[in-house]
Amino acid sequence: MPERTVLVVLYDGVQSLDVTGPVEVFAGAGWAAGDPSAYRLRTASPGGRPVRTSSGLTLLPDTGLDSAPVPHTLLIPGGADGADGAGNAPEVVDWLREHGPKAERLVSVCTGSFLLAAAGLLDGHRATTHWAFCDEFAREHPEIDVDPEPIFVRDGRIATSAGVTCGIDLALALVEEDHGRETALVVARHLVVFLRRPGNQAQFSAPLAAQTAHREPLRDVQRWIAENPDRDLSVDSLAARARLSPRHFARAFHAETGVTPGRYVERVRLEHARRLLEETTHGVAEVSRACGYGTPEAMRRAFVRGLGTAPVEYRRRFHVPRTTH
């Protein structure tokens, strides 16, 4: 099994979990695969100086950037400065511009994508970043195809993830790619996280992705939808629950949540179906009924449209069996 060097770049203001989350995944993979040398983890900073994270922790790097080996995987974490991180870490950007093309795999976590972008390494590629900075990312870098929805994006040798904990999801995906699903599953269980949220999963769950309505009747409808995905969730039915006319309800719901009632229902049902496929052994037909799809074919179309895969394939890849202790 070839050794893969993972080099994590550190700088002042870096987000500590962007560093430690992926590092714990890669370190755990060596143990899970029965080969401690599966990944050789290294950290480097400008001049090899200690760095102070955004939360006040001090990290001591292994080496300076100028002395760092050419890695298999080059990982750039984000920082508290967000989009300003590139401007506040010019030494890192200059180093990335020269050395980034030499790595076999370029990875960013959260706003680390701004550093890769400033170095010109994301030009012509699809990428993502923390949801709060996606609009700014797209404005500053029109040469990048910015996708604000997924928790991580793979585009050839480049992988970018959304905020903070999404770096763990991306690292698990890379471990699965390098060492197989079983190894990644062992790591996920050890860290008590999902194996693994698919990259095209939205950065927010359906209720979080939409705004919470201001008016109580509409908030009650949002709760009702989340708690009863198998019920009649047509506009007429929901409008009657809110005691509004269908036209008034549809306009008010969209104005206060940012999505149409139909789109909101679609997101809730898809999220509920994913969770059942990941966490239970219910059959596809049973899941489709429980989530209001009615038929397996209707659910299959919703999965292909929303996730790019069929329910059976989704379960094969992402079902996490319950374990007993």
From TrEMBL:
CDD domains: GATase1_AraC_1. Keywords: Transcription, Transcription regulation. The keyword Transcription applies. GO terms for molecular function: DNA-binding transcription factor activity; sequence-specific DNA binding. It holds the Pfam family DJ-1_PfpI. Gene3D superfamilies: 3.40.50.880, Homeodomain-like. Residues 219-317 form the HTH araC/xylS-type domain. This is GlxA family transcriptional regulator. The lineage of its organism: Bacteria, Bacillati, Actinomycetota, Actinomycetes, Kitasatosporales.
